[in-house]
Amino acid sequence: MSAQITLPFEAPIAELETKLHELESFSNEQDIDVSHEINRMKEKIEQTRMDIYANLSAWQKVQVARHPDRPYTQDYINTMTTDFVEIHGDRIHRDDRAIIGGFAKIDGKKVMILGSQKGRDTKSNVECNFGCAHPEGYRKALRLMKLADKFGIPIISLIDTKGAYAGLESEERHIAEAIAVNLRECFNITVPIICVIIGEGGSGGALGIGIGNRILMLEHAYYSVISPEGCAAILRKDRAYSDQAAEALKITGPDLIKLKLADEVIPEPKGGAHTHLAQAADNLKTAILKNLAELSGKSKEEIMQDRYDKFRAMGEFEGSVE
């Protein structure tokens, strides 16, 4: 984990925590009992945190989704699954560490779990290419999904990427084709697919592993065709308008549910998932198991039709243009 990082809107919390530290130091140095004041200060900090996080703007949620300490796919795998067996490589080019996955159990239920993976430091970020997958990453993901389909095991896809890698190597190995094939082939998977945006859900990079029967989102995650900075740079020629772009793009859970692009928002611990991994993982596990239970009684044909109908309904509207 990195050193404690304070996001801009968390300044009031940081100020109170500094005062708390000073009060505790004073109590220890002077051997004076100020436990009552310390408890009051702790309560005030928690209340301030709750008030701030209950009213985050879209841009502030983007900042939380990008927090360096935010749990990644490997963290959730380690915390909420057992018997994880990682599967490597796409059997064509190499093993792309920007996407990881394998067989696991959640409360004894067999699943295939896969997802985007970022790094915590320079070395791991380079290894994971900052969570931006190459074509072989999407081909590995598809190999894992087809393997799960073969054995009748449901698929859990955890999404946290700014987007697919758009460099020369990706173009040489056909990144657009790799994502397009995933989109097509996921509609032919006969087992339930639960997709969860756990952090950033960026563009086609997210869609490449984001075709599912259920699209869930953590409370402070976002899902967007373009980053707010990219949108602001294109439309306003200035990234300083990123906060306005984030609001206009409708990229947070409640807006996406209204647009029928997401199905459920999973609550996070107050202060974000990075403040309490165990609680965040438990909330995620509960939501996954609930949605798998809802899909468990459907036949293969119903599972496929459910997924197809879900995505065909996106973007529908009624009315006329005069």
Secondary-structure map with pairings?
Layout lengths: L10 H20 L4 H19 L4 H8 L7 H8 L1 E5 L12 E8 L2 E8 L5 H7 L6 H16 L4 E7 L6 H5 L2 H12 L6 E10 H5 L6 E5 L3 E3 L3 H8 L6 H8 L3 H6 L5 E3 L10 H19 L4 H13 L10
Parallel strand pairs: 3-4, 4-5, 5-6, 5-7, 6-8
Antiparallel strand pairs: 1-2, 2-3
Helix pairs in contact: 1-2, 3-11, 4-13, 6-8, 10-11
**What's the CATH C level of the largest domain?**
Alpha Beta
Total helical elements: 14
What is the share of helical residues? 40-55%
| CATH fold field value of the largest domain | 2-enoyl-CoA Hydratase, Chain A, domain 1
The CATH homologous superfamily of the largest domain is termed: 2-enoyl-CoA Hydratase, Chain A, domain 1
- Unreliable residue runs: none
* Overall mean confidence score, pLDDT: 92
CATH hierarchy: architecture of the largest domain: Alpha-Beta Complex
Order of helices and strands: HHHHEEEHHEHHEHEEHHHEHH
Number of domains: 2
Beta-strand residue percentage:
15-25%
N-to-C CA distance: 56 Å
Query: What characteristic shape results from the CA principal axes?
Result: globular
Biggest sheet descriptor: 8 strands, mixed
Multimerization state: single chain
Describe the structure.
With 322 residues, this protein is an alpha/beta fold. The chain has 14 helices and 8 strands. The protein folds into 2 domains: 8-55; 62-312, 2-enoyl-CoA Hydratase, Chain A, domain 1 (Alpha-Beta Complex).
